[in-house]
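**Backbone shape codes:**
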Amino acid sequence: MCRWFAYISATEECLLEDVLMTPNHSLCKQVNSNFLPGLASHNQDTKQGELELATRNRYLNIDGFGVGWYSSTRAAYTTIEGPRPTLFKCAQPPLHDLNFKSIAQNTSTRTLFAHIRAATSTPVVTVNNHPFAFGRHIIMHNGSISNFEAIARGVCEKMHYDAFAAMGGRTDSEHFAALYMTHLGAHSKKSGGNGTSSWEENYTAVEMKSALIKTLEDIFALQKKLPEELPGNSLNIAVTDGNSMVAMRVRNHISEQPPSLYYSTVAGVSLNNKYPGTAAGDDNPDWTPDADWTRKAEDYGPHVIVASEPSTRVAEAPKVHDTGPWKLIEKNTCVMVERGVPKIEKMEYDEKLMSKKVTVFSDDESKMDGLCDRCGG
């Protein structure tokens, strides 16, 4: 399991420090803790349910960190138009990285992806950290593709050559990203399409969702060709081109749940030091209504945050079913965002692509090493 955080708004910038470091339960602090309101309703009153919840939402995410934010700086110096992603990655937890701390204190953006990693079988090195960038597009993932080694060659064969050549690591997540970019390129409006030229285009949220679903179906179909049925895949995915965003919470299993995923359209107010209140649930000591740099809460523009866990955890945690300003995204559900406004859609798959194999859990931690839905890679 990994954890990730995504923010997008057409008008409101966020300071990286405000959203990723300051809150009581910020992403940077989720390296060794979790907060999962509302998940108890998913059959967690049984021992099997408790183990499933614990396995797919584990405490430790210490195998690296990555952040991608969008800026239009390059557009002022080249023929490139619109915002482009900047990436920062390190192979250690983020709170003790002085370089990231300096960047976070001095960088704001209207589109932000951030990710902390819990590695599986691939090395703990910077190149394997999310998000992955292809032109103006970035992609990140939490979960795992079951028995990925058995289908990896088949996945690569479905990729456009440029997407295959752009991969720098060996994680299942980056392979998913490259295959997604191949399918997204099919929606290119330029002659020739696909390949690196298609990575410079913007696409609608509907086109991005279509490419994601095609990628999922390719992976599920390749797995169905294997001699034995595999457990379901956990695929909590987020993709963006800086203007639109699509996120989905997926597990292709008839009963089992994917890792946690939430969204909010109001939490941004307490994640911005210009506004009253703070993500820690306290009054903002710096905020005054007459200051030139402060704003009123009602003036905050449309925005959407999608995150593995709510960042705005107050000192006294709410009841187990109380998600506060956050809403739990249901299994096999997609959140599409354009101009800061979300649209929620349920996703349906061919029943033939759904797994029925029950994952065997154990409360003996040593027996779960090969079974855990930790981060891809």
